[in-house]
Amino acid sequence: MNKRKLTKKELQERQIIEDKKFNRTMLISFSLLIVLTISILTFYTYWCDTKYAYRQYALYGKEIPLDLVCMNGNNLQIHESSKESYQGKTYYFCSQDCYNHFVNHFRQDAFVPDSFSGDTICKADALIGLKNRGEPQVVYFKNKKTFNQYYEARR
Predict the structure, then answer these.
(1) Are 146 and 113 in contact (CB under 8 A)?
(2) Quick one: how far is CA 96 from the chain centroid?
(3) CB 78 within 8 Å of CB 52
(4) How far apart are the first and last CA of the chain?
(5) What is the pLDDT along the chain (155 residues), one digit of tens a residue?
(6) What's the per-residue H, E or C state across the chain?
(7) Quick one: pLDDT at residue 26?
(8) Are strands 89-93 and 82-86 parallel, antiparallel or unpaired?
(9) Contact of 123 with 138, CB cutoff 8 Å
(10) What does the alpha-carbon distance between residue 15 and residue 8 come to, in Å, rounded to a whole number?
(11) For 4, which of 19, 29, 36, 76 is 20 to 30 Å away at the CA?
């Protein structure tokens, strides 16, 4: 093997090419790092909103856990609701103001018609589902039968 010595000019050209490759690699690496950091911070900042939007679609046609509903406003909540007992039954509220309004207007707020059969039911004993996909408004059902019939009729 015949190894030839590089001239000073050839060494400088190689060094320039290697520097350009290194700079390009560093630019791409730091750009990806910045994009990844911004993505993680955005997701972390809007995690609750993301989860809430997901629930509005994913829980349609399924029974909603009671602690995700404000029974005074009849809405799906971003965060878990607080559990309060009133007249021997357990209700869920998003705030103390909702609870106070509920207590002051118990007859109007505690009882609703079943969304399919029309029978009057107590919210504490009801099954809960979403009225429309992608919207936070909830509806109440007397039992699993009317719950299933409601969603079958909406298909």
Answers:
(1) no
(2) 23
(3) yes
(4) 79
(5) 567 777 888 889 999 999 999 999 999 999 999 999 999 999 889 998 989 999 999 999 999 999 999 999 899 999 899 999 999 999 999 999 999 999 999 989 999 999 888 899 999 999 999 999 999 999 999 999 999 999 999 88
(6) CCCCCCCHHHHHHHHHHHHHHHHHHHHHHHHHHHHHHHHHHHHHHCHHHHHHHHHHHHCCCCCCCHHHEECCCCEECCCCCEEEEECCEEEEECCHHHHHHHHHCHHHHCEEECCCCCCEEEHHHCEEEECCCCCCEEEEECCHHHHHHHHHHCC
(7) 96
(8) antiparallel
(9) no
(10) 11
(11) 19
Structure tokens at 133: 């996909």
| Both tokens assigned to 31 | 């750009």
